[in-house]
Amino acid sequence: MSASMQTRHRDLTLMAERLSCNPLAGWIAVGSVVFLLGGCSEGEAPPTPTTAAAPLAVDPDVARRRGLEPAAVARGADLYAAHCAECHGARAEGAPGWHKPGPDGKYPPPPLDGSAHAWHHPRAALRVTIQEGTARLGGNMPAWKGKLSDAEIEAVVDWMVARWPDEIHGAWREIEGKAARH
């Protein structure tokens, strides 16, 4: 792990520890997830993703090494392509300019490929954001609860996690482990 990545990882680990033990900080974390996943709306045209290619397949051996079922990861890829890629991009690369607020003051859909902020959140936070959407928090992402089953949402999260680079995935596993202990 590079020195800058180690510093970033240490800082994120400390942040995760603080968030898991402080209810107010937990709400702040939920707000952060709005920035992470918010951006799409069923009622308005989403930003055009930068690529029209199909989602990248995940090597089944990588999925297994990460404790994921390859069939669930493949199902997650199909679900992502059908429900998420329109806003977050076919390769989960996010919308152009995702890091700057749009004319409506809301951030466009961010990357979910490990290059942005998704990996800073435990699985439970990712799941809740997908289920509930971000509209009540000021975002544009629709709620997927009732449209996707819990198993389907888990499969989408599995697909995202399986695609993250090893270094990012390792850092996320530590955050996930700390969240599970609290």
TrEMBL record:
Swiss-Prot/TrEMBL keywords: Electron transport, Heme, Iron, Metal-binding, Transport
Domain of life of the organism encoding this protein: Bacteria
Positions of the Cytochrome c domain: 71-164
PROSITE patterns: CYTC
Gene Ontology terms, MF aspect: electron transfer activity; heme binding; iron ion binding
SUPFAM superfamilies for the chain: Cytochrome c (SSF46626)
Official protein name in the record: Cytochrome C
